[in-house]
Design goal:
With 367 residues, the chain is of the alpha/beta class. The protein has two domains: 188 residues, Quinone Oxidoreductase, Chain A, domain 1 (Alpha-Beta Complex), CATH 3.90.180.10; 144 residues, Rossmann fold. The protein is built from twelve helices and 15 strands. The strands form three sheets. Strands 3, 4, 5, 6, 7, 14 and 15 form a seven-stranded mixed β-sheet that branches. Strands 10-9-8-11-12-13 form a six-stranded parallel β-sheet, sandwiched between helices. The protein is globular.
Length: 367
């Protein structure tokens, strides 16, 4: 028998998180309840916490939930192909499935349900309230998208489906990366490392990663995951080094995943090869990019491609790789946190806790 309430972390405003008890909602034939086993903590969670994202408060954060089906309606079970007790990963977007962007395959951009309608972003005032993964239980809307995950994979590893899925979409699917390509990843955080894993799995010829001096452990891990070269941009001339590593040509694919800093976007124009592709995935708090020399794009006939979220094919690829055990993903996981420690978890990921370096971390509500 399920409880009548669920603990949940509620964000009431910028840098204000409280632990509350919320009623467990009823479900109908098309919906379900997920018992949250783990919820990954994303860099955008830190931006949401700081008030940098256009989110309506109060809200239950958490858009990377993994868990088991606790209760499910008959039509939902048939539609998703799951039943009570099955373990699933939940995609962040909750698209309408009927608007133009949904019907053309760009469902991550759906705004037909009122803004960005997604797990971790729908306000508490929108019934039934338990939309985010920072809770014991999560409501699965009829339009939620789930993927089955094997039950024997440790939760802290299985919940990497989201960052690893981002790696496959941003570093492979969007720029059409393949054998022979040189891929340059700007930023060695969890999604930058995921891009390394994905690019290597796609057969990229050379993978290079940039970072800061303080990122030395992450750059070392990038090598462990298959990067051929790493560049400390504070100690090396990155433009010159990229030219050296590419025979003066530049990188076929540049994936920009740094957080908040807009300067790497302008630098990407100098790194990309003629005819190359630049993928912009790191958000910058809506700040403009200084020294953006558009003539470099013109002369190189390079493409700039935006990347927002992850799609089902990329999630499926990521889950298969996780289940295969071929990549030592446990080396990327640095922290587990109890639900009540959500604020410290976000601050740790954001680098606000002295002496702590977080790469991938998650909340474990059942802990």
């Amino acid at each position: 028998m399920l409880p009548k309430i669920s603990r949940a972390i509620v964000q009431e405003g910028p840098r204000r998180l409280v632990l509350r008890e919320l009623p467990l909602p009823e479900i109908d034939a098309d919906s379900a309840l997920l018992r949250v086993e783990a919820c990954g903590i994303c860099g955008s969670d830190a931006e949401q916490y700081a008030g940098l994202l256009p989110v309506t408060f109060p809200v239950v954060p958490g858009h990377e939930p993994l868990g088991t089906i606790a209760r499910i309606g008959d039509r939902a079970a048939q539609r998703w192909g799951v039943d009570v007790g099955d373990r699933v990963a939940v995609e962040a977007p909750i698209p309408c499935g009927r608007c133009r962007v949904c019907l053309t395959g760009r469902y991550t951009m759906c705004r037909a349900r009122g803004g960005f309608f997604a797990h971790g972003y729908v306000p508490l005032t929108q019934p039934p309230g338990l939309w985010g993964g920072y809770a014991d239980y999560l409501y699965l809307d009829p339009c939620s998208i789930v993927h089955r995950v094997r039950a024997d994979v440790p939760a802290a590893i299985a919940v990497m489906f989201n960052p690893l899925g981002a790696g496959f979409r941003w570093a492979v699917d969007i720029p059409n990366t393949g054998p022979g390509d040189t891929v340059l990843v700007l930023g060695p955080g969890q999604r930058g490392l995921a891009c390394v894993i994905a690019a290597r799995a796609a057969g990229a010829d050379t993978v290079v990663v940039t970072g800061l001096t303080r990122d030395a452990p992450k750059l070392a891990l990038a090598r462990r995951f298959g990067a051929d070269h790493v560049i400390d941009i504070e100690r090396e001339d990155a433009r010159r080094r990229v030219k050296e590593l590419t025979g003066g040509r530049g990188a076929d694919v540049v994936v920009e995943v740094t957080a908040n800093a807009p300067e790497p976007v302008a630098e990407a124009l100098h790194y990309v090869a003629p005819g190359g592709r630049i993928v912009l995935a790191g958000v910058k708090g809506f700040r403009s990019v200084p020294d953006f020399v558009s003539d470099l794009l013109v002369l190189k006939e390079a493409q700039v491609l935006g990347a927002f979220g992850v799609t089902s094919p990329a999630y499926a690829t990521a889950i298969r790789l996780i289940e295969s055990g071929r990549v030592p993903l446990a080396e990327m996981h640095t922290h587990d946190f109890a639900l009540e420690d959500a604020e410290r978890a976000i601050q740790t990921l954001a680098g606000e806790v002295p002496g702590e370096i977080s790469i991938h971390s998650c909340l474990l509500p059942g802990r």
